Amino acid sequence: MLEDKLLVLKCRRGSKDAMCRIYAKYKDYLLTLAKGLLSEQAEAEDVVHDVFVRFARSAGQFQLTGSLRGYLAACVSNLARDKIRAKTRQSEALDSVNPVIPRADNPEQCVIEREELMRLRRAMSQIPYEQREAVVLHLKGSMKFREIAKLQGVSVSTIHGRYRYGLDKLRSLLDSKG
Amino acid sequence: MRPADNIKRLIKNLSDTTSAEMDERVLGDVLRALEESKKTSALIQPNIRRTIMKSPITKLAAAAMIIIVVLISIIHYDSGTSVAWGEVIKNVEASPGFIYQLRQTYIQKEKGANEIHINARVYGSSEYGIRMDSCDPNCPVQTYGNIKEKTLTTIMHSSKTYSRTPLPDDDLAELERLEPREAVRELLSGGYRKLGRKTIEGIEAEGIEIDDPSKAKANFQVDSCVIQLWVAVDTGLPILIEVDTVGKDGTLEVHTVQDNFQWNVELDASEFEPDIPEDYTLMEVEIDADGGASFKTTVKYDSQEVVGAKIHKWRVTGKDPESGYLLESEDGQSVTSIPESWADSPEHAVRVQEELDLQKQQGNRELVVVTEIEVNGQLDYRVLMYEHNLLDGQTVRISDFDPDDTSQWTVINERQEELNQLLRERRRQEEKGQELATTEERQVYGRVFTFKKRRFVLSDGTEVIHSIGRLKDD
Fold this sequence. Notes:
The complex is a heterodimer of chains A (178) and B (474).
Chain A: H1 2-12, H2 16-38, H3 41-57, H4 68-86, H5 107-124, H6 129-140, H7 145-152, H8 156-177
Helix pairs in contact in A: 1-2, 2-3, 2-4, 2-6, 3-4, 5-8, 6-8, 7-8
Chain B: H1 4-13, H2 20-53, H3 57-75, H4 85-94, E1 98-108, E2 115-125, E3 129-134, E4 141-146, E5 151-156, E6 161-166, H5 169-176, H6 180-187, E7 193-200, E8 203-211, E9 222-232, E10 238-247, E11 252-262, E12 281-282, H7 296-306, E13 314-320, E14 324-329, E15 335-338, H8 346-362, E16 366-375, E17 378-389, E18 395-401, H9 416-431, E19 438-444, E20 447-457, E21 463-471
Parallel strand pairs in B: 6-12
Antiparallel strand pairs in B: 1-2, 1-11, 2-3, 3-4, 4-5, 5-6, 7-8, 8-9, 9-10, 10-11, 13-14, 14-15, 16-17, 16-21, 17-18, 19-20, 20-21
Helix pairs in contact in B: 3-4, 3-5, 3-6
């Protein structure tokens, strides 16, 4: 937290080193969030790109009053939502990029987990965006329901409902195709 | 059925990493954006701010009125057109009061160019003075220039505040120059050309044009100034005045339009008496010896609100659970955030941010904490924390960098995590009663701070001294 504040202050002075460090620190986290929300690799990369570029543009004026991680995550969520809204029809296509294989000492287990993750991504692209957002931001973004509710401007119970419905739907989709 | 925990585990296991190609693409754009940000935010925006800030409402209004009488005075001596020019000056002099619409656009013509728009209704009377009402519903502000009392009163309805200052002699002189004969003597030397006839809003009009930088009423270097005056053929009264001013080597353009004139209006003295609601708060105005700064507070609100201009207008783009309201500047060049504990609505957040901007620009905030890190005996960075007293009664603190700090900020990168760890450990020890910090008193920007200094040696042998200074009597 303190490091982030200092990095932001240094960015305000135009430090490229500080900006590179912020990018290195949060790029994978933000890409994972964006990919979880948008499914498509290219769109997710675009969102992360736009978030960092906007942040850099405003670096001279930016005041960090909360956590930088939370701020950037909120920006990803907002831009992802904008992209979803901009689409006339939500694409269900899966991109061609395979998910990163989780670490597993057992090669057989590795293959199983890789298959599971691919099926999970496919299922996630099929649940309503609001539910996906609640699930991804809570489980992957480590955001509390209260925080997601504030971000989306809805009640905590609504977010909790979206989260439960999202998980149920995912479970149903994975079971039906399993 | 697949256990929910398994799905949660799968989602938590989601992990994407950026490719080298993406890193290269994004970082390239990010660093370019950062470079642009340095140029635009540090140089251009303050420049245009300063330009507008030095443009008090009286200058805008008085200059606008003077233009009318000056040009009318000039054409008083011309008799070669079908307009009864000789009668125009008499017509204007005979008008007890007048009303017109004033629109101005300031354009900064450099990278990151921005525009500032001003839209106000102006009420004028040679006897009572001038009044300007902002037409921007987001900036309901009224300004009154009273010639007799020699005062300038500004009422800012959005913040329920007002200010009242003496009119500086320069501005008062401009208001008093509403007397046309004085203007005629000064400006008769300027040449002009006839523009002929044209129909404006269905009214047959004849115009003249004067091209003379010395006629510009501006507070910046003027390279050129072209003024056009159009007078209705049937009434012999002005219906349109346009002024195009270019200054600062072509980097700043100001376009002014005055139209929708109403002449021969009976304006009562009460129209020029400020009606200040009882629950409005009087703002203090500092008067410096320096004439340019004497309008400090008033100018602040002139530029921000009085005439409808928003130098750095913010809008709320969303909410973040930790950062609060996310704000973006109207020009899209800046973002910031205001915590929810500071603002209870998006509108409130915008007001707070604008007030913070203004206070920072004015230096109207108090330095309360100084944090420094020395690395091997050299100052590595210094961060200042300021306290802002806001109009809504709350006091907030914001960190900012030291504008005079030229230190290196080297520790912030690889060694910051280690330093943080050592700091946390040291504080735990101190909480248990061990006194491991030393103290010293030192002046920073003219105020005495008591610094608590902690010395560390990092794993690579670097000696770091971390100091936090608080106001001695805080």
